[in-house]
Amino acid sequence: MLEHGGNLRAAQQRYGGTDWIDLSTGINPHGYPAPAPTPDAWHRLPERDPALVKAACDYYGAPHLLPVAGTQAAIQALPRLRAELAGPARVTVSAPSYAEHAHHWGRHGHVMREVAYDALDDAVAGSDVVVVINPNNPTGATVAPERLLDWAERLAARGGWLVVDEAFGDTARALSVSGHAGRPGLIVLRSVGKFFGLAGLRLGFVGANAPLLTALDDLLGPWAVSGPAQEIAIAALRDHGWQQATQTRLAHAGARMHALLADHGIDAHGTPLFHWWAEPRPGAFHEHMARRAIWVRLFPDAARGIRVGLPGNESAWRRIEQALREWNET
Amino acid sequence: MLSGLAPTTLALALVAGVLLDLLLGEVRRWHPLVGFGRLASDLERRLNAGRSRIARGLLAWALAVLPLCALAWLACAYAGAAVHALLLYLGIGLRSLRDHTLPIHAALVRGDLDAARGLTSRIVSRDTHHAGESDLAKAGAESLLENGNDAVFGTLFWFLVGGGTGVVLFRLANTLDAMWGYRNARFNLFGRVAARVDDVLNYVPARLTALSYVLLAERGRLLAWRCWRAQAPAWTSPNAGPVMASGAGALGVQLGGAAVYDGVTEQRPPLGTGPDACADDILRAWRLVWRTTLLWVVVAGVALFAVDGVLHA
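^ Those are the sequences you sent over. The predicted structure of the assembly is below.
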């Protein structure tokens, strides 16, 4: 398995201490206050609730969505589905990007290559499947939706797919192509974990045309999403008040993080939920922060640098500022 | 026909050559390709030095191949069909392919991993010291698919084009590519001509072989075709790519991928798709090569007799 952020236990084991600030993911630290599930949610088999799909379609503005147990389930299933439907494909995955895509598209006989984010346009012609993360994790680079739709159309013309992972798309709605997820060949992945801060729920959505969603549903099998996850997600997706307040709050927190990093000479890019920069000495920075019980995400190879998420309270902000000041003094 | 033989005679010589190979197998002593190998090594030692390495490589290639081709041509011209058949027998390696790979299958089936490693190390250049059943089966199946082209179908193709002389040209060019066609400091320039000539001579036969693998696919022709289309361009060799990708697709098995060379694990592109290779895939790869041979001999035989009918109608 690939290593990811959010592995705070490993940090505690290695450096000791308990009062850790976890900045190693891009998950909203002020997650949706999940209501207690009803007894039925625990005791009955989780039939798919049409209200969940309806709430998600309304929130994401998508015509068709399939709820899945986290987009990870779809990331793993899509390469297999493609192999079953159309045999091995020439696959281009944007780089540097969230590594799970490349990891799984490298299987099932597909010929996978990673292409730099800004060179994707040229790679579309020689590919059957193109996978792009928009906005990109971790670099924060973006592709305009018009361009994505053009790629999708070119790929669909020869039976190809464009997979757009919009895991961090909630705070950049103008970039989203979810509204077009009924078009042939366009597959959009949405995550409830990041913006809603419900990573433990394991819930995501796949938008695509109906036949493809049926095939994917078939592959993933029944009861893919738990009853409690369905109930909590319905509440979260319908709560426009919370969503608007969160947009504002994240925009402020993101701007604050950007400014804090800039004050310490760091030119970071990203989304409100995370900031990344090409740190020249990423290992040393990671170590420096860990010694102060601040867990950041280290990218030692591809996307060489550091990614930080948002802290949850004022004392954490202060500790981060202190640690950055000390980093500059070293 | 460049062979100078009547179509029916060429067809009979074709069948005779293949039968001789099946009955007698590889020549045990005085194998002509072993002698040729010594000659080629000698030429390389003398010529692979100094400037103009590509031109020197061309000269060495010409000195190694052309006199023997001329000799073969003269022998064919004077002694006729029997010499054509004899040269095909010497050039084709169908029985030898079988004799080198089926024992690996047998060793794996009886659980003798050490014997299987030893047998596999004779036919592939990768490390087999720590190889498991799947690695060895993969190596065996890959070798069968690829060498099916080099040792059998390429030879048959050039026999049909140029008779015994065609066989000699193809086999010698193929041997020189195997000896000199490397992208390392010693051979990058000197071996350029040998590599390119082999690429050219193998271009059509490799694609006919790949097409045959698709037609005879056990696990669906469409899959074999799609593997060819998607996977062949990623393979480093332009001719082995179509052959191995379509062959692995025809078997419905996952080949390519990781292999250990000189202690270093190299990630090669994927070939085919499906479960990892197992011992029986060696047998299945052999059957694919065998059925492809039958297809070629039958199709060529029928075509040659038909041409003869037209000529004498």
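Residues 88 and 110 of chain A are 5 Å apart (CA to CA). The mean pLDDT of chain A is 95.

Shout if you want it in another format.
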